[in-house]
Amino acid sequence: MRAFITGLSGAILTAAERHFVEEADPWGLILFKRNVTTPDALRRLIGEFRAAVGRQAPVLIDQEGGRVQRLGPPHWPAYPPGAVYGAAFDRDPGDGLMAARLGARLIANDLAQLGIDVDCAPVADVPAAGSDPVIGDRAYGADPPKIAALAGAFATGLMEGGVLPVLKHLPGHGRAVADSHKRLPVVTVDRATLEATDFAAFRPLSGLPLGMTAHVVFTAIDPVAPATTSANIVKHVIRDSIGFTGLLMSDDISMGALSGSLSERSRAAIVAGCDVVLHCNGDLSEMVEVAAQAPVLAGEAARRAGAALAARKSPAPLDADASRAALAKLLNDFRPEAGSHEA
After folding, report:
1. What pLDDT, in 10s, does the model give residues 202-232?
2. Which residues are tagged catalytic?
3. For residue 273, what is the domain's CATH number?
Protein backbone atom coordinates (compact mmCIF):
# COMPACT_ATOMS: atom_id res chain seq x y z
CA MET A 1 0.00 0.00 0.00
CA ARG A 2 1.19 3.49 -0.80
CA ALA A 3 0.65 6.42 1.54
CA PHE A 4 -2.07 8.27 -0.34
CA ILE A 5 -5.84 8.35 -0.69
CA THR A 6 -7.19 8.89 -4.18
CA GLY A 7 -10.36 10.22 -5.74
CA LEU A 8 -11.98 9.04 -8.96
CA SER A 9 -13.38 11.03 -11.86
CA GLY A 10 -16.99 9.86 -11.89
CA ALA A 11 -19.59 7.23 -11.11
CA ILE A 12 -17.77 4.38 -12.87
CA LEU A 13 -14.21 3.11 -12.60
CA THR A 14 -12.66 3.76 -16.00
CA ALA A 15 -10.19 1.34 -17.54
CA ALA A 16 -7.39 3.87 -17.06
CA GLU A 17 -8.32 4.39 -13.41
CA ARG A 18 -8.51 0.65 -12.82
CA HIS A 19 -4.99 0.23 -14.20
CA PHE A 20 -3.77 3.16 -12.06
CA VAL A 21 -5.34 1.77 -8.88
CA GLU A 22 -3.92 -1.70 -9.52
CA GLU A 23 -0.42 -0.33 -10.08
CA ALA A 24 -0.29 2.53 -7.54
CA ASP A 25 -2.13 0.69 -4.74
CA PRO A 26 -3.52 3.69 -2.81
CA TRP A 27 -4.33 3.19 0.86
CA GLY A 28 -7.91 4.29 0.30
CA LEU A 29 -10.54 6.02 -1.82
CA ILE A 30 -12.46 9.25 -1.16
CA LEU A 31 -15.85 9.84 -2.74
CA PHE A 32 -17.48 13.09 -3.86
CA LYS A 33 -20.84 14.09 -5.29
CA ARG A 34 -19.52 13.46 -8.82
CA ASN A 35 -19.15 9.78 -7.88
CA VAL A 36 -22.70 9.44 -6.58
CA THR A 37 -25.76 8.47 -8.62
CA THR A 38 -27.78 5.61 -7.15
CA PRO A 39 -27.07 3.34 -4.16
CA ASP A 40 -26.50 0.32 -6.40
CA ALA A 41 -24.12 2.20 -8.69
CA LEU A 42 -22.16 3.51 -5.72
CA ARG A 43 -21.88 0.05 -4.18
CA ARG A 44 -20.62 -1.22 -7.53
CA LEU A 45 -18.00 1.52 -7.80
CA ILE A 46 -16.75 0.79 -4.28
CA GLY A 47 -16.64 -2.93 -4.97
CA GLU A 48 -14.67 -2.44 -8.19
CA PHE A 49 -12.16 -0.20 -6.42
CA ARG A 50 -11.61 -2.73 -3.65
CA ALA A 51 -11.30 -5.54 -6.18
CA ALA A 52 -8.64 -3.55 -8.03
CA VAL A 53 -6.51 -3.08 -4.89
CA GLY A 54 -7.25 -6.61 -3.72
CA ARG A 55 -8.25 -5.78 -0.15
CA GLN A 56 -10.93 -4.17 2.01
CA ALA A 57 -9.39 -0.73 1.55
CA PRO A 58 -10.97 2.15 3.49
CA VAL A 59 -13.52 4.21 1.56
CA LEU A 60 -14.01 7.78 2.79
CA ILE A 61 -16.66 10.43 2.27
CA ASP A 62 -17.47 13.87 3.72
CA GLN A 63 -20.85 13.43 5.38
CA GLU A 64 -20.90 16.02 8.16
CA GLY A 65 -24.44 17.30 7.59
CA GLY A 66 -25.52 20.77 6.54
CA ARG A 67 -23.46 22.25 3.71
CA VAL A 68 -21.01 19.36 3.66
CA GLN A 69 -22.65 16.07 2.74
CA ARG A 70 -22.03 14.18 -0.47
CA LEU A 71 -25.09 11.93 -0.10
CA GLY A 72 -28.51 13.51 -0.04
CA PRO A 73 -32.07 13.37 -1.35
CA PRO A 74 -33.68 11.58 -3.08
CA HIS A 75 -31.76 8.45 -2.12
CA TRP A 76 -30.49 9.51 1.31
CA PRO A 77 -31.72 11.89 4.00
CA ALA A 78 -30.04 15.23 4.60
CA TYR A 79 -28.66 15.93 8.05
CA PRO A 80 -28.22 19.06 10.15
CA PRO A 81 -24.96 21.01 10.43
CA GLY A 82 -22.95 20.96 13.64
CA ALA A 83 -24.45 24.24 14.85
CA VAL A 84 -27.88 22.60 15.17
CA TYR A 85 -26.45 20.07 17.64
CA GLY A 86 -24.79 22.99 19.39
CA ALA A 87 -28.15 24.77 19.76
CA ALA A 88 -29.68 21.59 21.19
CA PHE A 89 -26.76 21.37 23.64
CA ASP A 90 -27.40 24.96 24.76
CA ARG A 91 -31.02 24.06 25.59
CA ASP A 92 -30.04 20.83 27.34
CA PRO A 93 -26.48 19.44 27.25
CA GLY A 94 -27.67 15.85 27.61
CA ASP A 95 -30.09 16.20 24.71
CA GLY A 96 -27.43 17.86 22.57
CA LEU A 97 -24.94 15.07 23.14
CA MET A 98 -27.59 12.42 22.52
CA ALA A 99 -28.62 14.15 19.30
CA ALA A 100 -25.05 14.36 18.00
CA ARG A 101 -24.48 10.71 18.76
CA LEU A 102 -27.78 9.68 17.20
CA GLY A 103 -27.32 11.83 14.10
CA ALA A 104 -23.92 10.28 13.53
CA ARG A 105 -25.32 6.80 14.13
CA LEU A 106 -27.91 7.38 11.40
CA ILE A 107 -25.26 8.70 9.02
CA ALA A 108 -23.17 5.61 9.74
CA ASN A 109 -26.17 3.43 8.95
CA ASP A 110 -26.49 5.09 5.53
CA LEU A 111 -22.77 4.74 4.83
CA ALA A 112 -22.36 1.16 6.04
CA GLN A 113 -25.13 -0.02 3.71
CA LEU A 114 -23.02 1.25 0.80
CA GLY A 115 -19.70 -0.16 1.97
CA ILE A 116 -18.33 3.26 3.05
CA ASP A 117 -16.43 2.84 6.30
CA VAL A 118 -14.82 6.24 6.98
CA ASP A 119 -16.60 9.59 7.45
CA CYS A 120 -14.51 12.77 7.33
CA ALA A 121 -16.14 14.17 10.47
CA PRO A 122 -16.39 15.48 13.17
CA VAL A 123 -15.22 19.08 12.88
CA ALA A 124 -13.59 20.33 16.11
CA ASP A 125 -12.64 23.75 14.75
CA VAL A 126 -13.32 26.74 17.02
CA PRO A 127 -14.70 29.65 14.97
CA ALA A 128 -13.56 33.17 15.82
CA ALA A 129 -15.07 36.57 15.10
CA GLY A 130 -14.15 37.79 11.63
CA SER A 131 -13.17 34.36 10.32
CA ASP A 132 -14.07 33.09 6.87
CA PRO A 133 -17.48 31.35 6.74
CA VAL A 134 -15.93 28.17 5.31
CA ILE A 135 -16.35 26.66 8.79
CA GLY A 136 -19.36 28.68 9.95
CA ASP A 137 -22.27 26.48 10.98
CA ARG A 138 -20.17 23.36 10.50
CA ALA A 139 -18.82 24.14 13.98
CA TYR A 140 -20.66 22.90 17.07
CA GLY A 141 -20.18 26.24 18.77
CA ALA A 142 -17.42 28.56 19.95
CA ASP A 143 -16.62 27.05 23.38
CA PRO A 144 -13.80 24.44 23.25
CA PRO A 145 -15.21 22.08 25.94
CA LYS A 146 -18.63 22.11 24.28
CA ILE A 147 -17.11 21.48 20.85
CA ALA A 148 -15.00 18.62 22.16
CA ALA A 149 -17.99 17.02 23.89
CA LEU A 150 -20.23 17.19 20.82
CA ALA A 151 -17.48 16.09 18.44
CA GLY A 152 -16.76 13.17 20.74
CA ALA A 153 -20.43 12.18 20.79
CA PHE A 154 -20.56 12.36 17.00
CA ALA A 155 -17.44 10.20 16.69
CA THR A 156 -18.94 7.66 19.07
CA GLY A 157 -22.12 7.45 16.99
CA LEU A 158 -20.14 6.82 13.83
CA MET A 159 -18.07 4.08 15.41
CA GLU A 160 -21.17 2.40 16.85
CA GLY A 161 -22.38 2.18 13.26
CA GLY A 162 -19.17 0.60 11.97
CA VAL A 163 -17.75 3.81 10.47
CA LEU A 164 -14.45 5.41 11.44
CA PRO A 165 -14.42 9.16 12.19
CA VAL A 166 -11.81 11.59 10.88
CA LEU A 167 -11.06 14.45 13.27
CA LYS A 168 -10.64 17.72 11.40
CA HIS A 169 -8.95 20.13 10.83
CA LEU A 170 -5.89 19.70 13.06
CA PRO A 171 -4.75 21.87 14.80
CA GLY A 172 -7.64 24.22 13.95
CA HIS A 173 -9.28 26.01 11.01
CA GLY A 174 -11.71 28.20 12.93
CA ARG A 175 -9.61 31.39 12.93
CA ALA A 176 -8.83 31.25 9.21
CA VAL A 177 -9.78 34.48 7.46
CA ALA A 178 -9.62 32.81 4.05
CA ASP A 179 -11.12 29.67 2.55
CA SER A 180 -8.21 27.24 2.17
CA HIS A 181 -9.90 25.73 -0.87
CA LYS A 182 -8.99 28.99 -2.63
CA ARG A 183 -6.01 30.60 -0.87
CA LEU A 184 -3.71 30.18 2.11
CA PRO A 185 -5.11 31.42 5.45
CA VAL A 186 -2.62 33.00 7.87
CA VAL A 187 -3.41 33.12 11.60
CA THR A 188 -1.33 35.59 13.62
CA VAL A 189 -2.74 34.97 17.11
CA ASP A 190 -0.20 34.25 19.87
CA ARG A 191 0.49 30.67 20.87
CA ALA A 192 -0.94 30.95 24.38
CA THR A 193 -4.31 31.92 22.93
CA LEU A 194 -4.17 29.09 20.42
CA GLU A 195 -3.31 26.57 23.13
CA ALA A 196 -6.22 27.72 25.30
CA THR A 197 -8.84 27.79 22.53
CA ASP A 198 -8.22 26.25 19.11
CA PHE A 199 -5.92 23.45 20.25
CA ALA A 200 -7.89 22.83 23.45
CA ALA A 201 -10.93 21.60 21.51
CA PHE A 202 -8.87 18.80 19.95
CA ARG A 203 -7.11 17.49 23.07
CA PRO A 204 -10.02 15.45 24.46
CA LEU A 205 -10.31 13.81 21.01
CA SER A 206 -6.65 12.91 20.65
CA GLY A 207 -7.33 9.17 20.76
CA LEU A 208 -9.54 9.08 17.66
CA PRO A 209 -8.20 6.76 14.95
CA LEU A 210 -7.90 9.24 12.08
CA GLY A 211 -7.25 12.95 11.72
CA MET A 212 -6.90 15.53 8.95
CA THR A 213 -4.59 18.54 8.86
CA ALA A 214 -5.48 22.17 8.19
CA HIS A 215 -3.92 24.12 5.33
CA VAL A 216 -3.44 27.07 7.69
CA VAL A 217 -0.31 29.00 8.69
CA PHE A 218 0.09 29.74 12.41
CA THR A 219 2.78 32.41 12.53
CA ALA A 220 3.37 31.98 16.26
CA ILE A 221 4.66 28.46 15.54
CA ASP A 222 5.79 28.38 11.90
CA PRO A 223 5.75 31.71 10.04
CA VAL A 224 5.93 30.12 6.58
CA ALA A 225 4.51 26.62 6.24
CA PRO A 226 0.86 25.65 6.80
CA ALA A 227 0.18 22.87 9.28
CA THR A 228 0.01 20.26 6.51
CA THR A 229 3.62 20.83 5.47
CA SER A 230 5.08 22.06 8.77
CA ALA A 231 7.17 19.50 10.65
CA ASN A 232 7.18 21.90 13.59
CA ILE A 233 3.37 21.98 13.81
CA VAL A 234 2.88 18.27 13.17
CA LYS A 235 5.43 17.25 15.80
CA HIS A 236 5.17 19.94 18.46
CA VAL A 237 1.49 20.83 18.21
CA ILE A 238 -0.54 17.98 16.67
CA ARG A 239 1.47 15.11 18.15
CA ASP A 240 2.90 16.67 21.34
CA SER A 241 0.66 19.50 22.55
CA ILE A 242 -2.66 18.07 21.34
CA GLY A 243 -1.42 14.50 21.79
CA PHE A 244 -3.06 13.10 18.66
CA THR A 245 -2.06 9.46 18.26
CA GLY A 246 -4.03 8.37 15.17
CA LEU A 247 -3.26 8.23 11.48
CA LEU A 248 -2.73 11.77 10.19
CA MET A 249 -3.80 12.56 6.64
CA SER A 250 -3.38 15.83 4.81
CA ASP A 251 -6.37 17.82 3.73
CA ASP A 252 -6.78 17.72 -0.06
CA ILE A 253 -3.31 18.32 -1.47
CA SER A 254 -4.76 19.98 -4.59
CA MET A 255 -6.44 22.86 -2.73
CA GLY A 256 -5.61 26.46 -3.58
CA ALA A 257 -4.01 27.15 -0.19
CA LEU A 258 -0.89 25.19 -1.11
CA SER A 259 1.84 26.25 -3.50
CA GLY A 260 4.27 24.30 -5.66
CA SER A 261 3.67 21.30 -7.87
CA LEU A 262 1.61 18.34 -6.72
CA SER A 263 4.87 16.42 -6.38
CA GLU A 264 6.37 19.12 -4.15
CA ARG A 265 3.25 19.38 -2.02
CA SER A 266 3.01 15.62 -1.56
CA ARG A 267 6.66 15.27 -0.60
CA ALA A 268 6.42 18.21 1.80
CA ALA A 269 3.37 16.74 3.57
CA ILE A 270 5.05 13.36 4.06
CA VAL A 271 8.34 14.93 5.21
CA ALA A 272 6.40 17.11 7.69
CA GLY A 273 4.91 14.04 9.31
CA CYS A 274 1.61 13.36 7.56
CA ASP A 275 1.17 9.60 7.35
CA VAL A 276 -0.99 9.73 4.22
CA VAL A 277 -1.56 12.31 1.46
CA LEU A 278 -5.16 13.00 0.42
CA HIS A 279 -5.86 13.87 -3.23
CA CYS A 280 -9.50 14.46 -4.09
CA ASN A 281 -10.25 15.90 -7.52
CA GLY A 282 -10.14 12.74 -9.64
CA ASP A 283 -7.76 14.20 -12.24
CA LEU A 284 -5.79 11.15 -13.37
CA SER A 285 -2.64 13.06 -14.34
CA GLU A 286 -2.54 14.60 -10.86
CA MET A 287 -3.27 11.23 -9.25
CA VAL A 288 -0.24 9.76 -11.03
CA GLU A 289 1.93 12.66 -9.83
CA VAL A 290 0.83 12.28 -6.21
CA ALA A 291 1.24 8.49 -6.29
CA ALA A 292 4.82 8.84 -7.54
CA GLN A 293 5.73 10.75 -4.36
CA ALA A 294 3.78 8.63 -1.90
CA PRO A 295 6.04 6.14 -0.13
CA VAL A 296 5.04 2.61 0.71
CA LEU A 297 3.34 2.68 4.10
CA ALA A 298 5.94 1.58 6.62
CA GLY A 299 7.11 2.14 10.19
CA GLU A 300 4.93 4.24 12.49
CA ALA A 301 2.69 5.33 9.62
CA ALA A 302 1.90 1.70 8.81
CA ARG A 303 1.31 0.94 12.49
CA ARG A 304 -1.13 3.83 12.83
CA ALA A 305 -2.88 2.83 9.60
CA GLY A 306 -3.26 -0.72 10.86
CA ALA A 307 -4.55 0.43 14.22
CA ALA A 308 -7.13 2.67 12.55
CA LEU A 309 -8.46 -0.10 10.34
CA ALA A 310 -8.50 -2.51 13.27
CA ALA A 311 -10.94 -0.14 14.96
CA ARG A 312 -13.58 -0.85 12.29
CA LYS A 313 -16.36 -2.83 13.97
CA SER A 314 -19.58 -4.42 12.82
CA PRO A 315 -22.52 -2.02 13.24
CA ALA A 316 -24.66 -2.33 16.32
CA PRO A 317 -28.40 -2.96 15.66
CA LEU A 318 -30.44 0.15 14.82
CA ASP A 319 -34.13 0.93 14.35
CA ALA A 320 -33.61 3.68 11.79
CA ASP A 321 -37.20 4.96 11.70
CA ALA A 322 -37.47 5.22 15.47
CA SER A 323 -34.03 6.83 15.62
CA ARG A 324 -34.98 9.48 13.04
CA ALA A 325 -38.11 10.33 15.01
CA ALA A 326 -36.08 10.59 18.21
CA LEU A 327 -33.51 12.82 16.51
CA ALA A 328 -36.20 15.17 15.16
CA LYS A 329 -37.63 15.51 18.67
CA LEU A 330 -34.24 16.19 20.23
CA LEU A 331 -33.54 18.86 17.62
CA ASN A 332 -36.82 20.72 18.14
CA ASP A 333 -38.47 18.91 15.24
CA PHE A 334 -35.65 19.59 12.79
CA ARG A 335 -36.34 17.03 10.06
CA PRO A 336 -33.17 15.67 8.43
CA GLU A 337 -34.94 14.62 5.25
CA ALA A 338 -35.97 18.24 4.61
CA GLY A 339 -32.40 19.54 4.21
CA SER A 340 -30.14 19.95 1.19
CA HIS A 341 -26.60 19.08 0.25
CA GLU A 342 -23.83 20.49 -1.87
CA ALA A 343 -20.60 19.22 -3.41
Report:
1. 999 999 999 999 999 999 999 999 999 999 9
2. 181, 251
3. 3.20.20.300
